[in-house]
Structure formats: structure tokens, C-alpha cells
Amino acid sequence: MRNVTLIVAVLALSAASQSVGKVSFFVGNVKLKSESSKEWKDARINLSVTHGDQVKTEKSDRLEITLRDGSLIRVAEESEVTLAAPGGKTIAPSVQKGKIWANIKKLGQRNYDFEVTSATATAAIRGTVFRMDELDSTTVVSVYDGKVAVGPGADLKKQYKTEEKSLERKEVSGPVEVPGPFEVSLMDWVTIAKGQRISVMRNGKYAQTNMDLKNEANDDWVKFNMQRDSVASIKHE
Predict the structure, then answer these.
(1) Rounded to whole angstroms, what are the CA distances from 102 to 40, 67, 202, 211?
(2) Secondary structure (H, E, C), the chain
(3) Which domains are delineated in the chain?
(4) Are the C-beta atoms of 191 and 122 separated by less than 8 Å?
(5) Looking at the DSSP assignment, which residues form a beta bridge with residue 9?
(6) Gap between the Cα atoms of 94 and 117, Å rounded
């Protein structure tokens, strides 16, 4: 009987370690599907989200997930995102289509790493507010607070035939622009800071630009997220 109890406890601990968070807000008819199911289910408040769950939104839909430490991620309309928590040490949403917003606590305030991936780019987080847009031919990462390290995604790693452990993360000191659009290949990691945006094409060429944050605040998706973030009280200084 003790063996049975021990097995149940281990399974429960394993399931908990795969937890991503819970649905805390949504608009429209957002659908989610677990890794082990073929059926899509409607989003509902406090619905648990776990490793391998897929999110699908249509026009006018939006979804907010509160992570286990209180950090936030949001999925925009007409998006497809797969949520992952491999080993419980990393939370790593993968964007197949559309847009995702993240307001993530500083590393010292959480017990996991956080990154957002697409086929083209990977954005590794310490503590920041940023978005990733997965467009038809380009992945765009924009930083609204803090810093984000951006490196090649899975497809680019295969293209470069480079082991991830050999990729070096390089930090940019303050907002600067890479001279000439799409002339440099994203083979190394580059850190972008508040007010910067990086666009990475499928072939690995990338361009880094500065954003006008005041103008950004008029964008509907940005405005929505800023309003939601205003009640989160997550500091990044």
C-alpha cells in the first residue's frame, strides 16, 4: 500500500512540475487543447494550463494566462501558440502564428527560466515586458521594458548546423541600430533593451531598430496589454 501511495505522490509532483499557469482573463471564444486530447475546449477563468497545451484564437479573441509566480503572458487574436514547461525548469511558449505578449518577473523572483520561441527566433527572458509577432516571413521581437536576449530558432539552428551551446549571447548597450536592414545573420545571441525591436527573416537576416514608445502606445494590442499590465505591479528595475 505504501508503494501505491508513493507512486501516486510522485505522479502528482510530476504533474505539478509541468504546470504553466491558469487562465486569468479572456475575450471571445478562445480554444485550448491538451497534448493528449484531440478535442478543443473553451477557455474559462482559472482553467489550469499545462505542458503541451495548445491555444487557438480567432478574430477578436484574446487570452491571458497568469503563470505560477504571477508573471503574465497574453495571446492576441488570430494566433496559434503551444505552451511548454519541459522538466518544470523552463516555461517556453512557442508561437506558430500571430502575437504573444509577456510581462515576466525578474529571474531572482522566479524559480524557472522563460523564453518564447518561433521557428526563426528565440527570445530568452530575465525580467521584462515584450512581445513576439510571428508573421508570414518574419519574426519580430519588441521590448517595452527590461532586456531580451534574441537568438536563432529551431529552423535557423538546423540551417546553420550549429549546436545551441556554441551560440554566444552578446549584449547591446542601449538602443542602437544595426546599419543597413537585413544585412547580418542571426548566428549569435543579441540582447535588445527597452525601446528596441529586432526583425528576423526566415533566412536568418535581421534588422534592429528603435521604437517610438509614445507612438507604440496608440497601437490597440499594446494599449490593451499596458492596461492589463497596470494592475499587475510587476517591477523590472
Answers:
(1) 24, 10, 23, 18
(2) CHHHHHHHHHHHHHHHHCEEEEEEEEECCCEEECCCCCCCEECCCCCEEECCCEEECCCCCEEEEEECCCCEEEECCCCEEECCCHHHCEECCEEEEEEEEEEECCHHHCCCEEEEECCCEEEEEEEEEEEEEECCCEEEEEEEEEEEEEEECHHHHHHHCCCHHHCCEEECCCCCCCCCCCCEECCCEEEEECCEEEEEECCCEEEEEECCHHHHCCCHHHHHHHHHHCCCCCCCC
(3) 62-229 (2.60.120.1440)
(4) no
(5) none
(6) 5
Q: Which amino acid is at 40?
A: W
pTM: 0.82
Q: Give the pairing type, strands 138-152 and 196-201.
A: antiparallel
Query: Over its length of 237 residues, how does the chain's per-residue pLDDT go in tens digits?
Result: 444 433 333 333 344 447 899 999 999 999 999 988 889 999 999 999 999 999 999 999 999 999 988 999 999 999 999 999 887 788 999 999 999 999 999 877 787 899 999 989 999 987 899 999 999 889 999 999 999 999 888 777 777 664 444 444 444 444 444 444 555 567 778 889 999 999 998 888 888 899 999 999 999 999 999 999 988 777 655
Among candidate residues 219, 197, 221, 201, the one with its CA nearest the CA of residue 210 = 197
